[in-house]
Design a protein that fits this description.
By secondary structure, the chain is mostly helical. 78% of the residues lie in helices and 0% in strands.
Length: 387
């Protein structure tokens, strides 16, 4: 291990600042880390950064948070991983709890409804654009030759869309089946080649302190599953959350859920921090803490467990194929969720135009970040409702 050019305090402060000011979602955040820590400061080598990024893509959980945890682990082990992870997540967690308090206090007022009237439509546009980018990045471009080469992933993608739209919830078993199927087709492990039988081992006021003990337990288990089974971009967790929070448990209605996604867009740090806002609305501050802890704990454990031997794991083609299969169906589920939420949130011509304008802005104005779009949409919503 080479001599480090930074202290544990330095790297912790860096991630505290990134969690406070880092807007733009997972892709932008991992880009900031590469620019700051590899190119500008020279704290990491290019190889160390790429290994961390590969691990973050292979393991379940939010991409940017995993990479931050890995970077802390590289030179300072378990303590470094813990401090960088906490420093990265804590600022945005505090922000969403404060926004949750404001939402509880003012959510019923006309001006708040007007704000989220425009914001909700913009969020649909942002998620739709993110789903498109994830599709062409993780599966293939919309070209005949590329789609033919990845036909099985496209099949999983379509199945994910259809199942999500029909059932209006996430099917974890479907994710696992697609992951295992793609692994067996593309890169069957050695134990499978030696045996034709697949072993049956399937992975089996503001209300600040107001909470229900049963709700806390349900919140903990649900968000633990969300953190353990969702791969890729932070927005990939949206369909899973929608299926449980709105459909299965009925903790939030459609508009509240869309508002929760909007809160994630306007705060810095990992997009997945929306779980803190949802937890707060359901069970106050204890709910926010349990939801955030349960969601981020799996990615922390995966990262610190795999990091020491990752070079060997990263070369395992069977694991890569398993992740590719799961990613395809998860992105399909994200598209399905966009369709479901969109049909309920695009309620008139004005909201449709806001959503379309959002997509066009993201395509043609490259430097325009999501928080600015959300702010403009909020102003437009107020103007429409008051004029």
């Amino acid at each position: 291990m080479r001599t480090t050019r930074y202290s544990l305090r330095d790297i912790t402060i860096y991630f505290l600042k990134l969690g406070t000011w880092g807007f733009g979602g997972p892709v932008a955040l991992v880009g900031y880390m590469q620019r700051d820590l590899v190119e500008d400061k020279g704290w990491l080598t290019e190889e160390e950064y790429k290994e961390g990024l590969a691990l973050a893509q292979l393991a379940p959980g939010p991409l940017a948070a995993q990479l931050g945890i890995y970077i802390g682990f590289v030179h300072y082990g378990l303590l470094g991983a813990t401090l960088t992870g906490l420093a990265f997540v804590l600022p945005s967690f505090i922000m969403v709890v404060l926004l949750g308090m404001a939402y509880q206090l003012y959510g019923g007022l006309p001006w708040m409804h007007a704000v989220f009237y425009g914001v909700g439509a913009a969020v649909i546009g942002i998620i739709a654009m993110s789903a498109y980018k994830l599709t062409i990045k993780s599966i293939s471009k919309f070209e005949v030759a590329a789609m033919k080469a990845k036909w099985l992933l496209w099949l999983f993608y379509i199945v994910g869309i259809v199942v999500t739209v029909i059932t209006q919830k996430e099917e974890i078993l479907l994710f696992l089946v697609c992951g295992i199927s793609y692994m067996l087709v593309k890169a069957p492990p050695q134990w499978f080649k030696k045996s034709a039988v697949l072993p049956v081992t399937i992975f089996i006021g503001t209300g600040f302190w107001k909470y229900d003990g049963k709700n806390l337990q349900e919140i903990g288990w649900f968000f633990l599953k969300a953190g353990a089974f969702v791969f890729g971009s932070g927005l990939a967790i949206v369909p899973f959350l929608h299926g449980g929070v709105v459909k299965e448990f009925g903790w939030l209605n459609e508009h509240q859920f869309l508002d929760a996604v909007a809160v994630a867009m306007i705060t810095p740090g990992p997009v997945v921090i929306t779980v803190g806002f949802i937890g707060y609305l359901v069970a106050g501050f204890p709910g926010a803490c349990i939801a955030a802890l349960a969601t981020f704990l799996p990615c922390y454990l995966f990262t610190v467990a795999l990091a020491p031997s990752f070079k060997k794991i990263a070369k395992n083609t069977s694991i890569k194929a398993f992740v590719d299969g799961i990613t395809a169906v998860v992105i399909g589920a994200l598209v399905g969720s966009v369709i479901i939420i969109g049909l309920r949130s695009i309620i008139d011509i004005q909201t449709m135009l806001i959503a379309i304008a959002t997509v066009l802005a993201l395509i043609y104005i490259k430097k325009l970040q999501e928080p600015y779009i959300i702010g403009i949409a909020a102003i437009i919503g107020v103007l429409i409702k008051t004029l």
